[in-house]
Amino acid sequence: MTTTALITGANKGIGFATARLLGARGWTVLVGARDEGRGRDAENDLIARGTDARYVRLDVTDEQSVAEAARWIETEIGRLDVLVNNAGIAGGWAGKPSETSVAALRTVYETNVFGVVAVTNAMLPLLRRAPAGRIVNLSSELGSITETMNPKSPMFAIASLAYPSSKTALNMITAMYAKELSDTPIKVNAANPGYCATDLNRNSGFRSAQEGAEVAVHLATLPADGPTGTFWGYIWTADSGEGGGNGQIAW
Ligand code: NAP
């Protein structure tokens, strides 16, 4: 049986690059996408590269879609080795706290926070059937309170609510799942891809989507003695500039 990974929001950006990298390892890649046209395009692109890719309709904010995706995977594959909770939106991430409406906050949380919980809970029964389940949550250094409050960090200049706080919540969610699952083979970690050029930031990032995806792949392929409940990925400091490496990020 091949290793199977579900990646949410796999039709573009870091999610698609993650699908490409895992597919190149010979894995079966389930291309989660909310739009069928975009999902099928990504599926076909991956198939043309020799990957066993299968489109799965999955809108992480739609509980029915999440339940149907889990049922489909159970019928077609019977288990899930890796879940990459990648789907995310920026919302008004640059808006000041005092100018952020609760509605705007709620919209971002629906995808970045509640969507992750909905998908994780739906997929956990399938992950428990895998010999070495892995869950990777795409977080951000903007979710690190330590970094955003560090005057020496490039993140210090940011003062906005929706996106950063959604990733802070995701970090705690990662830690809590890791604790609950600590007596199982399943490892749950948060990934910081770094500032990557994707549609999320109008392609302003200084890293490529592939470099960001390599962080997710590292956590998706951790060995049995690898860590769980950690925040790992690109370290961006004032000193490192755009030439930092990967490592442990402070929550
Ligand atoms: P992106 O290019 O905008 O891709 C986001 C993906 O999420 C798209 O496939 C999008 O689908 C999907 N998506 C959004 N809402 C969804 C929903 N309700 N259900 C299912 N899929 C949904 O962004 P990206 O930069 O690759 O971001 C991927 C992840 O990395 C996000 O969680 C982001 O917060 C995180 N991240 C990115 C950066 C960065 O610098 N780029 C840095 C740190 C963290 P559609 O095409 O249908 O919209």
Q: How would you characterize this protein structure?
A:
The protein is α/β, with parallel strands linked by helices. The chain has a single domain, classed as Rossmann fold, CATH 3.40.50.720. Helices cover 40% and strands 15% of the residues. The protein has an 8-stranded mixed beta sheet, with helices on both faces. Strand 6 (187-192), helix 7 (209-220) and strand 7 form a beta-alpha-beta unit. The radius of gyration is 17 Å and the shape is globular. It starts with a strand and ends with a strand. The structure holds NADP nicotinamide-adenine-dinucleotide phosphate (NAP). NADP nicotinamide-adenine-dinucleotide phosphate (NAP) binds at residues 8-9, 11-15, 34-35, 38, 58-61, 86-89, 111, 115, 138, 140, 193, 195-196, 198-201, 205.
Give the topology.
Layout: E1 4-7, H1 13-24, E2 28-33, H2 36-48, E3 52-57, H3 63-76, E4 82-85, H4 102-128, E5 134-138, H5 145-148, H6 162-180, E6 187-192, H7 209-220, E7 231-234, E8 246-248
Parallel strand pairs: 1-2, 1-4, 2-3, 4-5, 5-6, 6-7
Antiparallel strand pairs: 7-8
Helix pairs in contact: 1-7, 3-4, 4-6
The structure holds NADP nicotinamide-adenine-dinucleotide phosphate (NAP).
Mean pLDDT: 96
Reported by name, the CATH topology is Rossmann fold
Query: Which percent range fits the helix content?
Result: 40-55%
**CATH H level: which superfamily?**
NAD(P)-binding Rossmann-like Domain
Q: Strand portion, in percent? A: 15-25%
Q: Span from first to last CA?
A: 36 Å
Number of domains: 1
Q: How large, in whole angstroms, is the Cα Rg?
A: 17 Å
Q: What is the number of E strands?
A: 8
Based on Cα principal axes, name the global outline. globular
Bound molecules: NADP nicotinamide-adenine-dinucleotide phosphate
Structural class: alpha/beta
Largest sheet: 8 strands, mixed
**What order do the helices and strands follow?**
EHEHEHEHEHHEHEE
By CATH reckoning, the class would read Alpha Beta
CATH architecture: 3-Layer(aba) Sandwich
In spatial order, strands of the major sheet run 3-2-1-4-5-6-7-8
Low-confidence stretches: none
Helix count equals 7
